[in-house]
Amino acid sequence: MTYLDEHVRAEIRPIKRRVEDELLARPGVVGVDIGEKTTGGKPTGRAAIVVYVGVKHHSQRYAIPVQYGGVPTDVVEDAFVPHRALAWSDGVHGAERHQCLVGGIGFGPCRAIRFVPPDVAVPGDYSVVGTLGALVTPRAASPRVMALTSFHVACVDDAWAVGDAMAHPSVVDGGHPWDDRIGTLARAALSGSVDGAALLLSSHLDCRAEVVGLGPVRGRAAAVVGTAIRKRGRTTGLTDAFVASTDATVVLDFGNDLGVRTLRDQVRVQAAPGHRFGDHGDSGAVLLDDTNHVVGLYCAGNPSGSIGFANPIDHVLDQLDVDLLV
Question: How far apart are CA 165 and CA 98, in angstroms?
């Protein structure tokens, strides 16, 4: 895969930002990014404004301008969804029980949440599961330890409240809503760039500032296009990919009263051909670079798992007013 030089991306960025709202308003458009243009499935080496559409119709290709300000467009068919899971646990990794709380393990709200079509096929009360990403602490002087995850996993719908109980293992994975409580929802943010939450962990629990299988968290860093990253998610376990962009704008349907939201300036990661980076249940995992610095908070991906999206970690920490525990 060819990664565009930052100088090239910087020239295209203002054009992309200027036109992306107009593009997102077009039927079927689910994302806008900066990337390499492909023709006939083959890379051309040319920089482009990449327009993701749910279904690539012949007529739609001509509805989207072939260029903006001299920068070509490239229409790519794909779909993106938040990667929490509902009442599903067969054949997964990360659903095991940990006596010491660390990053990369499964958890979920203790409360059952009512889901109805089209969010689910059959209406009913469902349990939700995602991933604890990393340990954090409040920026205001406090000895308390918190855990970072995604808003759409910890909060789920518009009935959430500070103090909602959380369990590890999740109820989906056989955890008990009383006996396996690990803490409560303390902070949450669902904004133009962040889908994050922080849980206040029970003071009697053991915890370590590390991620299962990846070791201690060393701090935070900005994602850099072309660099390798790793994550440990509740469902897919340890996976790796490369940072393909830090300019992604993606439209996600969080359903269940939260509705459709647009997240901008997201980190887009790309797995190697034939490999999967994330799946349902992995939301909330942190992305680590090769020095074990956190660069993002995983929130969504495509059906094949080859593409994933993460909030830039600086935005997450600032909006939740927390710092990574190292």
Answer: 18
Contact 278, 233 (CB under 8 A): yes
Q: Supply φ then ψ for residue 189, to 5 degrees.
A: -150, 125
Q: How far is CA 325 from the centre of its chain?
A: 20
Of 316, 281, 278, nearest in space to 297 by CA? 316
Strands annotated E in 110-218: 113-115, 124-126, 128-132, 134-138, 146-149, 165-167, 181-190, 195-201, 206-211, 215-216
Our CA dihedral for 108, 150, 279, 231, rounded to 10 degrees, sits at -110
3-state SS assignment for residue 295: strand
How many CB atoms lie under 10 A from the CB of residue 155? 27
SS3 152: helix
> Dihedrals φ, ψ of 50, to 5°?
-90, 125
DSSP 272: P
Q: Which amino acid is at 267?
A: V
In sequence order, which residues have a C-beta less than 8 Å from that of residue 265 and are 6 or more positions away? 193, 246, 247, 248, 249, 312, 315
38: which 2 tokens?
Answer: 């492909």
- For the chain, the straight-line distance linking the first and the last C-alpha, in angstroms and rounded, comes to 33
pLDDT 10s digit of each residue in the chain, 326 long? 567 778 899 999 999 999 999 999 999 999 999 999 988 878 888 899 999 998 766 555 548 899 999 999 999 999 999 999 887 544 444 468 999 999 999 999 999 998 888 888 888 889 999 999 999 999 987 789 999 999 999 999 999 999 999 999 999 998 999 999 999 999 999 999 999 999 999 999 999 999 999 999 999 999 999 999 999 999 999 999 999 999 999 999 998 889 999 999 999 999 999 999 999 999 999 999 999 999 999 999 999 999 999 999 999 999 999 999 99
Element (H, E) at 300: strand 293-301
Closest CA to 236 of 263, 269, 188: 269
What domains, with CATH codes, occur in the chain? 6-78 (3.30.70), 80-326 (2.40.10.10)
